[in-house]
Amino acid sequence: MNGFSKSHAENIRSALNKKSLIVSLGAKLRIEKLKKVRDWFLKTR
């Protein structure tokens, strides 16, 4: 990924991971189980 620092490029790759996308979308759609996963991740980050 040209134009991004190494850490930003890694963050972008993580965000585009299929599991990350599913959890993020599920949280936005207010699917309770996926909201809990997202909230846990944000707390432990």
Labels describing this entry:
single chain, 45 residues, mainly alpha, 3 helices, elongated
Structural account:
- The chain has 45 residues and is an all-alpha fold.
- The protein has one domain (6-44).
- Helices cover 76% and strands 0% of the residues.
- It is built from 3 helices and no strands.
- It has helices at residues 6-15, 18-28, 32-44.
- Helix 2 crosses helix 3 (32-44).
- The protein is elongated and about 35 Å long.
- The model has no long low-confidence stretch (mean pLDDT 89).
Largest sheet: none
Low-confidence stretches: none
Q: What proportion strand?
A: under 5%
Please give the count of helices: 3
Structurally, how many domains make up the residues? 1
Which word captures the global form?
elongated
What helical percentage do the residues reach? over 70%
Q: Structural class, from secondary structure content?
A: mainly alpha
Number of strands: 0
Instruction: Give the overall pLDDT as a whole number.
Output: 89
Terminal residue distance: 24 Å
How much is the radius of gyration in Å?
Answer: 12 Å
**SSE string:** HHH
Q: Which SSEs are present, and which pair or pack?
A:
Layout: H1 6-15, H2 18-28, H3 32-44
Helix pairs in contact: 2-3
Summarize the structure.
The protein has 45 residues and is mostly helical. It has helices spanning 6-15, 18-28, 32-44.
